[in-house]
Write a structure and sequence with these properties.
This protein is α/β, with parallel strands linked by helices. It contains 11 helices and 14 strands.
């Protein structure tokens, strides 16, 4: 007999299939196993508004002629208990005759938060919680952040030489890292709800900041920090298949009207110094149902977001070369003691072709 852990590993594999697809919903996988230990149904959560993992697994079993009476469902997140865009998954499992549910972790959504387990138990379904909880939470770190902290998980991406140079003083930066590293970076873009950049990057490089190097059915939204609303109306990042949100500190009704006619949402969040209030912006992104935000910006905005303590994770590609003096990853004020620096913890370090991918988290950011 295969162990519960092995079945949950299958469910987690299915959940990962939704990495580029499910936002703003969590990535969830489900495996249904009969009393003989045979997997009779598999499912992962589809695009927003479509079927959840449990419904897909039940459908899979039925389409192959299997009865789910008396079966066990392994699911990577608590089955939902509320009527949203789809019906409650806990009801679907109970009505189908599932006898046991093994779930990784409680859903942090206040509309669920244990209620799915309670409803299952009330209908005689045995419930077990906690298997591979950290793996499920990690896969949905942005969803947990939004539900608990009310703001997205913000990942700052950069590419640099081993001595920390992201561009020469001339501005030349294409390309410090390899094509493999750039493709990997696009995969991280694809998993995010939105890509965040600043007006300085737009004016200097006119980037598209979309996903091109990996296959995806969904382009992330674009978030632009533009305190003085200098956004060029012919910028390359305006694309019909994506939503654009501009955060500014000023009003320009004529330009805002033109932007609105193109489907761009302009939001006003000034701080006392006439810049965008970064913390207020991040909480507003939570309101907009952003789970993970992938930040690709210049040193000024990177430094400002770090000072505002709004960066949770750094995704850094290091090329095996030395460039000497040049532009740094983040503009930071001088400090007088090493203890005053930002403390990070390495989350992962992996070779990507000739380069190195480092994922590091700001100390304590994932303690929620």
């Amino acid at each position: 007999m295969i162990s519960d852990s092995a079945y949950m590993a299958m469910a987690l594999g299915l959940a990962k299939e939704g990495l580029f697809r499910t936002s703003p919903n969590p990535r969830v996988g489900c495996v249904i196993v009969d009393t003989a230990g045979k997997v009779i149904g598999r499912g992962s959560t589809q695009a927003v508004g479509e079927a959840h993992a449990e419904a897909m697994a039940l459908r899979d079993a039925r389409e192959h002629g299997f009865s789910v009476e008396g079966t066990t469902a392994y699911v990577t997140l608590e089955p939902c208990a509320h009527q949203g865009r789809t019906g409650p998954c806990c009801d679907a499992l109970a009505e189908a005759g599932v006898a046991r549910v093994v779930a990784s972790i409680t859903d942090p959504n206040p509309e669920v938060a244990g209620q799915g387990f309670q409803k299952l138990a009330a209908r005689g379904v045995a419930v077990s919680v906690g298997l591979e909880a950290e793996s499920s939470r990690e896969l949905n770190i942005g969803f947990f952040s939004r539900m608990i902290r009310k703001r997205p998980w913000i990942r700052m991406k950069s590419a640099a030489s081993l001595d920390g140079v992201t561009a020469l003083h001339t501005g030349e930066s294409q390309w410090i890292t390899s094509t493999l590293a750039r493709a990997d970076g696009h995969a991280w873009r694809a998993r995010a709800c939105a890509v965040l950049t600043g007006i300085g990057t737009v004016l200097a490089d006119d980037p598209r900041l979309d996903v091109r190097e990996v296959s995806t059915h969904r382009q992330p939204s674009l978030i632009l920090l533009d305190s003085q609303l200098r956004m060029p109306l012919d910028a390359a990042l305006f694309r019909p298949e994506r939503s654009v949100f501009i955060y500014t500190a000023v009003r320009n009704l004529e330009k805002e009207a033109v932007l609105a006619s193109r489907g761009v949402t302009v939001l006003h969040f000034p701080d006392a110094s006439g810049q965008v209030d970064l913390a207020a912006m991040c909480f507003d992104l939570g309101r907009l149902q952003m789970n993970e935000v992938h930040m690709e910006a210049g040193s000024l905005l990177n430094g400002a977001m770090l000072r505002a303590k709004m960066v949770d994770e750094i995704l850094l590609y290091l090329a095996p070369k030395l460039l000497g003096s040049g532009r740094e990853i983040a503009r930071r004020p001088d400090i007088s003691a090493l203890s005053n620096g930002d403390a990070l913890a390495f989350h992962s370090v992996d070779p990507i072709g000739p380069d190195l991918r480092v994922v590091a988290r700001l100390s304590g950011r994932d303690a929620f």
